[in-house]
Amino acid sequence: MNKKLFTGVCCALFAIFFTCAFAELTCAEASGWPQKPITLLVGYSAGGSSDLGARFLAQALEKQLGQPIVVENRPGSVSWVAWNQLLYNTPKDGYTFALVNLSMIFGAYDAMNPRKETIDDFDLLANQAIDYEAVAIRKDENRFSDFAGLVEYAQKNDLLVAAAGTGLVAGEATAAKMMEKFYGCKITVVPVDGMKDAETMFISGNTDFLLGTVGDVTLGHKNGEFKAVALFGEERSTLLPDVPTIKELGMGDYVQFSARGYSYAKGVDAEIVAKMKNALAKAIEDPEHIKRMNDMGVEVKLYVGDEYRRILEEQLENRLNIWGVSK
C-alpha cells in the first residue's frame, strides 16, 4: 500500500476511534452524573433575598441529587459577573449552574450598558419564583384611597415615585412608565440605590406612592405601615389575597413581574440537563422549600424548560412595548 495512503487511513481510523471513545466517555459521565459537589453561582452578595432563596433551593436540591450544592457568591454588574463566569469560564459538564433573572434577557436591550449575550446563550432549567409588581399608598393618604383614585389624581397632578434604576431593566421604573403610557399619569421617577431606600422615602413622605414587588410590599401591608392597592399580575397573590389585580379593577390586563430561576450555559449534555430539570422541579415544589420562600415574602411558581422560556420572552415583549424599543 502507498505509504501516504496508509498513513491517511491510519489517521482516519484513529480519529473515528477517538471520537467514538470520547462519545462513550461523555455518555458514561452523563449516566453517572452527579458524582461530585455542584456549584451554584449567585450574582448577589450573601444575605439578600435572592441569595437566601438560592440557598433554600440548594438545600432542597441536595436531597434530590445526593450531592452537596455549593453556593458561590459573585456579585457585580447586575449578576453579569456570575453569568460571565458561567458562560465563558466554566466547563460545560453539568457541575455549575447559576441563579438567573430577567436582566439576563434585558441586557441586550439596555441602552446604558448593552450586551451581546441573549437568552439563546443560556439553557434554561426551571423557574423558582415569580414576584409580581404591586402598588401601595400610605395608610393616612387623603388624596386618593385606591388604585383608580391614584390614577385619576396622577392624570392631573405630578407625582413622585422612587425606583432602583431607570429604563426597561428596572421593574419599578417600567411600572411607572406603564402608568404614564396607558393611563396618562404624570409621574417623575427618582432613582435610588435599592428598594429599601424607595420604601424609606415613601414612608417618610418624600414620594407619593410606592412601586415594588409582592415581596417588597407584603410585610408593610400586613403590618399596616401602608396599603397595597393593586397588583400587575395574572391573578391575585397568595401572599396578598386581599389585593386585586388591575384586570379585576377593569383597568387593563398588563402583567409585570420579576422572576428567579436557574440555568446552565449552552453546551451541557442533554441527559444531564434533563436530570437537573427533573431534580429542580422536585426541589422547588418541596413543601419545606415553599414555606421558607413564603415566609420571606416570595411566592414560588414553577416553570420548566420551554414554558420557562416562554414566560420570560413574554415579559421581555411587555417591557419593550412599554419603552418603545425595537427587538
Query: What is the beta-strand fraction?
Result: 15-25%
Can you tell me the residue ranges where pLDDT is under 50 for at least 5 consecutive residues? 13-25
Mean pLDDT: 90
* CATH homologous superfamily identity of the largest domain: Bordetella uptake gene, domain 1
> SS-based structural class?
alpha/beta
C-alpha-based Rg, rounded = 24 Å
The number of helical elements comes to 11
User: SSE order in H/E notation?
Assistant: HEHEHEHEHEHEHEHEEHHEH
**CATH architecture grouping of the largest domain:** 3-Layer(aba) Sandwich
Keywords for this structure?
single chain; 327 residues; alpha/beta; D-Maltodextrin-Binding Protein, domain 2; 2 domains; 8-stranded mixed β-sheet; two-stranded parallel sheet; 11 helices; 10 strands; 44% helix; globular
Description:
It is built from eleven helices and ten strands. The protein has helices spanning 3-32, 49-65, 80-88, 103-106, 147-154, 171-183, 195-203, 214-223, 270-284, 287-295, 305-323, and strands at residues 38-42, 69-73, 96-100, 122-138, 159-163, 187-191, 210-213, 226-231, 257-265, 300-304. Helix 2 (49-65) packs across helix 9. It starts with a helix and ends with a helix. Mean pLDDT is 90; it is low at 13-25.
